[in-house]
């Protein structure tokens, strides 16, 4: 059975406990989409990059000396009991809420109507009982709508100083960024690519990365060596046509670069940044601080009971999914 493409029209995800479910996104995967996902998962397994584990050293704590004996000292008052933890904030489902998706590898694809972000949005609706309208938009437009308050949520977003002024975050995954470079560019490191002024970089407009990757992007942009696109798909084509010589990728893009043509013509370079936190993005203009905390608790609950890890295991090898979701 053919899949319906999800357009930019607004569709509503209903909680099955409140009313009968209505198909607001393209139908679930047919055998073709399931086969595609299994094939993607096999490709990812071959490219999975193990994130480095970090364990802080524990300093030795000297043993406290025994208290001085003083029979004349007054008796201490009884200890004050710790305050009870605050009750979870109730979610406000009095109006439909809006969430922006964008096409990006394993995060979401309209080819199947599936992806990590779609699964997370469905689970948010199921747990909260709220109606969440999903809309597919360019990533740059999503950030504009979050800032204005016309959009309540997006997913898999990262923070920076500018975004934190208009958005709040609830983290659920951490991953690295890499430079995908043409082999014939003869750049064996990020620094070498930066020195070769004839090489051009392809980017999605409004995307930001880790500290070193951002520094690299800003330097290349200052030299007018960047070509922008609204999504990754056109950048892959331009890269193969040698219109650009590199682009920035993350693990969500591994199935595409595992294809024979890209794999033969490209190599992956490290920026040296630590993994970057990604999560639910909430508009400060449309959601009160209490509601932001209530949705943060929804995401924390999905992490605590293993739901978030299981979502990622649908698309990544189990070891990589666990490392990405446990930080």
Share of residues in strands: 15-25%
Radius of gyration: 24 Å
> Overall pLDDT, averaged?
82
Largest beta sheet: what is the strand line-up? 1-3-2-4-11-5
CATH architecture of the domain at 92-175 and 275-325: 3-Layer(aba) Sandwich
Helical proportion, percent range: 25-40%
N-C termini distance = 40 Å
Specify the CATH class of the domain at 92-175 and 275-325: Alpha Beta
Q: pLDDT under 50 segments (min length 5)?
A: 1-32, 48-74
For this structure, what is the CATH homologous superfamily of the domain at 92-175 and 275-325?
Answer: Periplasmic binding protein-like II
Briefly note the CATH topology name of the domain at 92-175 and 275-325.
Answer: D-Maltodextrin-Binding Protein, domain 2
The biggest sheet amounts to: 6 strands, mixed
Number of helices: 12
List SSEs in N-to-C order.
Answer: EHEHEHEHEEHEHEHEHHEEHHH
**What is the quaternary state of this protein?**
single chain
E-strand count? 11
Structural classification: alpha/beta
Name the overall outline.
globular
